[in-house]
């Protein structure tokens, strides 16, 4: 180990050896050192490979002093004490600004998240707790304090957390100390947001466009604002922000950033009063668009203030300066709060920040120095008092209810009359003049009358960390922390939901005339609540030290470190630890923890508790009247932590033995219970099985009896049947014999009457029997009712040939009628059109067979539903029979142009496909003929009546993929309207009238470059040639 890991063991102990030990360890990247259970952390200002998952596993469930000093050791000790001993814990991280407090809190939370339980719900909670850091770090590390209470269940799994912020420094928005940045989120949005997102927020990427952003600190080495912005957005989503909520937050941030660009100009009113006006209203307009506030309302709120006096309201103008400035759960607390601040210009914010640090130092003194020594004296232990500086006198100077600085500041803010910062300073000079830690130029104490380093408008306080001079300017206004009612009411009128929720006091229905508490009193109350909360938990300390002011790695400024060691009281802490006891605990909890180590005390001990510890701990413990103490130093014993670890190891081994015993007893009970259950189950199963076996045996006997009975009854029935059949045959034989005998007698009697017509009668009888047989056979051999089924039984006799054919014809007509009766009116119309097409084109047009299986749809363009053809639909008021895109052949070059072909009851129309404009409209009476080729192409010509208005431009030569359907519908529609059949000419060569000329259209066979698509080409003025593949 480099140097001494625990300052308690440092020899010799003085300030120089203390600093040298820290420097030696710091030079070897050992940034953590112990003072007993207190961890000293020196900020290395660089990344070190000591926070890997392997390191987490190395320190997991290990004793505090077992490994080299590390923040993970303290985190593990706190977590195991909370989980195993049911003690609420708090980890207090203190130090100056830049000492690494926030990074330490992140390491603590990441370690606890890594070692606690697993599971989907637990992992979600851990992820939300870890991702809360990037969201909160949109603020600067030094502008606010953060206290997080993490709640755990009995297993040690996190359930959730509560985060409290202290003193969000609002004044930093408008003014930052030299070298400091504004809030990080401003730089992150401008660096990491996309151009589209910036446009929505009405922002530009240039930092110089915004007055609130100082250019000297806009860019920081090692800080990637763009990457941090993506991290913040992802963290907001994990924590639970919805998309619209995230958008609302960024809109508010953008509005705040743009507020800095609003400038006011002074003007004088007619009554002589000063007022302010906004110079450029463009920024105001964009702010109103982001927040949803009426521009006139916001402008008036910026420039006017309404004052209420009894029942009257008076509106006064604001000058330029005023317009510009305005189930029990286990808990582990992690406190990461601002460090002690000493700037060139220290104001109200630094005053209350340093007050909070004084309170934290006080609780540290009380718990580690004062309370421990008082306890030794109270218990009668021989003890030499160790001197230390108690800062209670400084805390009393600030927070005393009568004479404290905060009390006098509140009194000055509330009193009537003229109140200024100078009157507040005068009051301080009167009340605090004799206080040894207060200094002022106007103080009555003669010691400071000649102190020219102290300006008139300042006072100085001797804090535990050193002297700090505060400028009194702005103390009163910042303590009032008032927002003019006009501004809050303007914000409440915003349509932006988040803005409205941030200013509930602007609701006119909830106006409260009671003066709100001042900022100082609010902060004092919140600090008191924090201190009370911390005192209910077992404290764990991380004391962060800043090695240099340059934030440079491997630089150790001994003077700076020495100053921090002195005011933190670390040497006094070491001396108390060395002279005191490393372990102390009351008898009751100590008995509960270690009673399993003795047979006499396990499981219950009812005798004197002191006797127990005399037997159990006397070799290495010191007993007093009410507690057990483990010495920090004893020349004859091992180091104290080894002695305590020995107790813990014995307890751990004993717990393992007890767990084994409990497991053995439990397994025995479980086996006995299982055996008794199996025994009862066996009895139940056996009884049910015997019942089942008897039932099966009974059913088998019953089935056998029924079978025998059925065989006997069957034999008797068959015997009776044979007798009945024999009797029946005897009766039938007698009847037949009698019939034959009677027939013979009748034939003998009437034989003479049949001899003349016997041949004709026999022929007719035979023919009748043959016809009867024919029809009966036809009945059984009839084909299916399908009209396309051409099967028909063969003719049995030649003389039935004509009858057989006629019967086939009648049957076919009958089943066709039955098939037609199933059709709807629409199907009948379709088949009529198909039949018409067959009559017109079958065996004439090569394209016809391919169209037989395709249904005639007519409306291939959904003109009524497609908004593109709304203009065309409005122009046609008749029912559209067919709507199809065709190619109109150009008369000049044979090229095709797309047109919409419409057929209505009275007209044929051609319209432009893109615009829907009607190009030509031809009445059906002017259509005289349709010409087409006999080949497999879609070209056809529509011939118009000579002299008609539509024929002025000549006939139409068109091409369509549904030629058969279009020609058939055009033929039927023309026949229906004009009562005349339209001439359909099918020829490979026909004439077409183009204006004044007649052109011959000729179809030829040829191979095409475009595959199976016919092409049209103008050969000369009289010939247009169509090549069909």
UniProtKB/TrEMBL annotation:
UniProt entry tagged with the keyword Transmembrane helix: no
Pfam family, one: IQ
Gene3D superfamilies: 1.10.10.820, 1.20.5.190, 1.20.5.4820, 1.20.58.530, Kinesin motor domain, Myosin VI head, motor domain, U50 subdomain
InterPro entries noted in UniProt: IQ_motif_EF-hand-BS (IPR000048), Kinesin_motor_dom_sf (IPR036961), Myosin_head_motor_dom-like (IPR001609), Myosin_TH1 (IPR010926), MYSc_Myo1 (IPR036072), P-loop_NTPase (IPR027417)
One Gene Ontology cellular component annotation held by this UniProt entry: microvillus
Keyword annotations of the record: Actin-binding, ATP-binding, Motor protein, Myosin, Nucleotide-binding
Protein known as: Myosin IB
């Amino acid at each position: 180990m480099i140097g001494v890991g625990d300052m308690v063991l440092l020899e010799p102990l003085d300030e120089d050896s203390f600093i040298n030990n820290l420097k030696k360890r710091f030079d070897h990247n050992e940034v953590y050192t112990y003072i007993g259970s207190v961890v000293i952390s020196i900020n290395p200002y660089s990344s070190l490979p000591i926070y890997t998952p392997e390191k987490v596993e190395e320190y997991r469930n290990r004793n505090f002093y077992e490994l080299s000093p590390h923040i993970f050791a303290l985190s593990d000790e706190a977590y195991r004490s909370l989980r195993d001993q049911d003690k609420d814990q708090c980890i207090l991280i203190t130090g100056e600004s830049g000492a690494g407090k926030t990074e330490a809190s992140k390491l603590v939370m990441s370690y606890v998240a890594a070692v606690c339980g697993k599971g989907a719900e637990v992992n979600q909670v851990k992820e939300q707790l870890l991702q809360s850091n990037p969201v909160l770090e949109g603020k600067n590390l030094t502008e606010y304090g953060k206290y997080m209470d993490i709640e755990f269940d009995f297993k040690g799994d996190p359930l959730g957390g509560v985060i409290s912020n202290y003193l969000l420094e609002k004044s930093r928005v408008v003014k930052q100390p030299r070298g400091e940045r504004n809030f990080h989120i401003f730089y992150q949005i401008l660096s990491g947001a996309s151009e589209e997102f910036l446009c929505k927020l009405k922002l530009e990427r240039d930092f110089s466009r915004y007055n609130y952003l100082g250019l000297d600190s806009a860019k920081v080495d090692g800080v990637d604002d763009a990457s941090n912005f993506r991290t913040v957005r992802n963290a907001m989503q994990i924590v639970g922000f919805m998309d619209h909520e995230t958008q609302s937050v960024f809109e508010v941030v953008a509005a705040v950033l743009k507020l800095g660009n609003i400038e006011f100009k002074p003007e004088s009113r007619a009554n002589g009063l000063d007022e302010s006006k906004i110079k450029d209203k463009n920024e105001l307009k964009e702010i109103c668009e982001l927040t949803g506030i009426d521009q006139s309302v916001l402008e008036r709120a910026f420039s006017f203030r309404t004052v209420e006096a009894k029942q009257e309201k008076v509106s006064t103008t604001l000058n330029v300066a005023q317009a510009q400035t305005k189930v029990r759960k286990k808990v582990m607390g992690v406190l990461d709060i601002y460090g002690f601040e000493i700037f060139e210009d220290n104001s109200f914010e630094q005053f209350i920040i340093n007050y909070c640090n004084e309170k934290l130092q006080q609780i540290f003194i009380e718990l580690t120095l004062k309370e421990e020594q008082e306890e030794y004296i109270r218990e009668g232990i021989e003890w030499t008092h160790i001197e230390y500086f108690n800062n209670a006198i400084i805390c009393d100077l600030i927070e005393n209810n009568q004479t404290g600085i905060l009390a006098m500041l509140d009194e000055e803010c509330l009193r009537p009359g003229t109140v200024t910062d100078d009157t507040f300073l005068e009051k301080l000079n009167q009340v605090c003049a004799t206080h040894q830690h207060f200094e002022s130029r106007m103080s009555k104490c003669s010691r400071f009358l000649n102190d020219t380093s102290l300006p008139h408008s300042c006072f100085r306080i001797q804090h535990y960390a050193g002297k700090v001079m505060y400028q009194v300017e702005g103390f009163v206004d910042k303590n009032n922390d008032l927002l003019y009612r006009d501004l809050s009411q303007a914000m409440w009128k915003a349509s932006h939901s988040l803005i409205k929720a941030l200013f509930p006091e602007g609701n006119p229905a909830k106006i409260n005339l009671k003066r709100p508490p001042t900022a100082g009193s609010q902060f004092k109350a919140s600090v008191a609540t924090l201190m009370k909360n911390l005192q209910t938990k077992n404290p764990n300390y991380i004391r962060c030290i800043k090695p240099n002011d340059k934030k440079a790695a491997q630089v150790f400024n001994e003077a700076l470190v020495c100053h921090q060691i002195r005011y933190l009281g670390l040497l006094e802490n070491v001396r108390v630890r060395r002279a005191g006891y490393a372990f102390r605990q009351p008898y009751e909890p100590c008995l509960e923890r270690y009673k399993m180590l003795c047979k006499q005390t396990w499981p219950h001990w009812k005798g004197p508790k002191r006797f127990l510890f005399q037997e159990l701990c006397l070799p290495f413990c010191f007993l007093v009247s009410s507690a057990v103490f483990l010495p920090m130093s004893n020349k004859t014993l091992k180091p104290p932590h080894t002695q305590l670890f020995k107790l813990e190891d014995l307890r751990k081994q004993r717990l393992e033995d007890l767990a084994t015993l409990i497991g053995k007893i439990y397994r025995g009970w479980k086996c006995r219970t299982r055996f008794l259950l199996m025994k009862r189950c066996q009895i139940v199963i056996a009884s049910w099985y015997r019942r089942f076996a008897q039932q099966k045996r009974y059913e088998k006997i019953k089935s056998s009896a029924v079978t025998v009975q059925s065989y006997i009854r069957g034999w008797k029935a068959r015997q009776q049947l044979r007798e009945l059949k024999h009797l029946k045959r005897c009766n039938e034989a007698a009847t037949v014999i009698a019939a034959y005998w009677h027939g013979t007698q009748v034939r003998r009697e009437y034989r003479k009457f049949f001899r003349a017509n016997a041949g004709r009668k026999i022929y007719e009888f035979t023919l009748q029997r043959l016809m009867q047989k024919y029809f009966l056979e036809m009945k059984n051999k009839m084909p299916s009712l399908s009209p396309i089924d051409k099967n028909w039984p063969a003719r049995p006799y030649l003389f039935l040939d004509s009858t057989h054919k006629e019967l086939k014809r009648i049957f076919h007509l009958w089943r066709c009628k039955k098939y037609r009766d199933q059709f709807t009116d629409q199907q009948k119309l379709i088949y009529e059109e198909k039949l018409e097409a067959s009559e017109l084109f079958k065996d004439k047009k090569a394209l016809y067979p391919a169209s037989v299986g395709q249904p005639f749809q007519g409306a291939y363009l959904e003109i009524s539903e497609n908004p593109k053809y709304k203009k065309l639909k409005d122009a046609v008021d008749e029912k559209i029979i067919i709507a199809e895109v065709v190619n109109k052949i150009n008369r000049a070059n044979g090229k095709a142009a797309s047109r919409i072909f419409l057929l209505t009851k009275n007209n044929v129309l051609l319209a432009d496909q893109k615009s829907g404009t009607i190009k030509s409209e031809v009445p059906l009476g002017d259509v005289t003929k349709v010409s087409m080729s006999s080949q497999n192409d879609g070209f056809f010509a529509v011939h118009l009546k000579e002299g008609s208005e539509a024929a002025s431009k000549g006939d139409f030569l068109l091409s369509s993929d549904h030629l058969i359907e279009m020609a058939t519908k055009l033929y039927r529609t023309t026949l229906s309207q004009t009562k005349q059949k339209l001439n359909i000419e099918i020829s490979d060569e026909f004439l077409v009238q183009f204006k004044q000329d007649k052109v011959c259209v000729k179809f030829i066979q040829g191979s095409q470059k475009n595959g199976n698509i016919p092409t049209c080409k103008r050969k000369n003025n009289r010939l247009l040639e169509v090549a069909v593949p």
